[in-house]
Amino acid sequence: MGVSAADVKVLREKTGAGMMDCKKALDLSNGDIEKAITYLREQGILTASKKSSRTAKEGLIHAYTHVGSRIGAMVEVNSETDFVARNEAFRTLVHDLAMQVAATKPLAVDREHIDPAIVEREREIYRTQARNEGKPEHLIDRIVQGKVEKFYQEHCLLEQPFIRDTDKTIKDLVTATIAKLGENIVVRRFVRFELGGE
Asked: Are residues 91 and 22 in the same domain?
């Protein structure tokens, strides 16, 4: 049974959980809202959503250098307390994020931080490609939107598949750590270096 966008919206409004989390919960519960809420609670996602409004000003800055020292990354990840910042699970998350940045070259932490001019340029390229491939005009906008979504999934750190477990996104990884540690965690920023690069 397919899950409707309206059902996802209802679940999001009731729980504050992310869109993909809501869709997955509804898929697994065959569209039953109450079962989906239970699933989200069991996964700790509701707890994580509630904590997202709390201020995170502690944390770590961590540097990772890939074997051969030709690629490196530095990330800042914030927590609410220095106690959590010293926790092994938090440190593992931060290290994994630095490795992810080194391996995948994201452009920004999330969609909101990607330059709109870059996204618009990509839209125009996708639109031209679709026309050059002879796609029907009435389908072009939908094709372009699908490609833009894929662009975000490839270039936004939080939307990327985790390199160690591609069934999870980086956002899933952060959410699971929030649920485990009981504090808000924010991926603040990152920088990536490549020998000889700009």
From this structure: no
The strand pair at 161-162 and 71-79 is best described as unpaired
Q: Is the pLDDT of residue 57 over 90?
A: no
CATH code for the domain in which residue 140 is found:
1.10.286
pLDDT in tens, 164-180: 999 999 999 999 998 88
For 194, residues 6+ apart whose C-beta sits below 8 A from its C-beta are 70, 71
Could you tell me what percent of the chain has a pLDDT over 70? 90
92 and 184 in a single domain? The answer is yes
Confidence at residue 41, expressed as pLDDT on a 0 to 100 scale: 74
Cβ-Cβ contacts under 8 Å for 49 (sequence gap 6 or more): 15, 16, 17, 18
| Residue position matching structure tokens 């490839």 | 154
What are 64's strand-pairing partners?
73
> What is the average pLDDT across 74-99?
93
What are the φ/ψ torsions at residue 156 (nearest 5 degrees)? -100, 120
d(CA 66, CA 104): 12
Single-letter amino acid, residue 6: A
The answer to whether residue 76 scores a pLDDT higher than 60 is yes
Domain that includes residue 20, residue range: 5-43
Q: Is 98 within 8 Å of 73 (Cβ atoms)? A: yes
Report the distance separating Cα 117 and Cα 135, nearest Å. 25
pTM: 0.69
Rounded-to-integer distance, Cα 21 and Cα 27, Å: 10
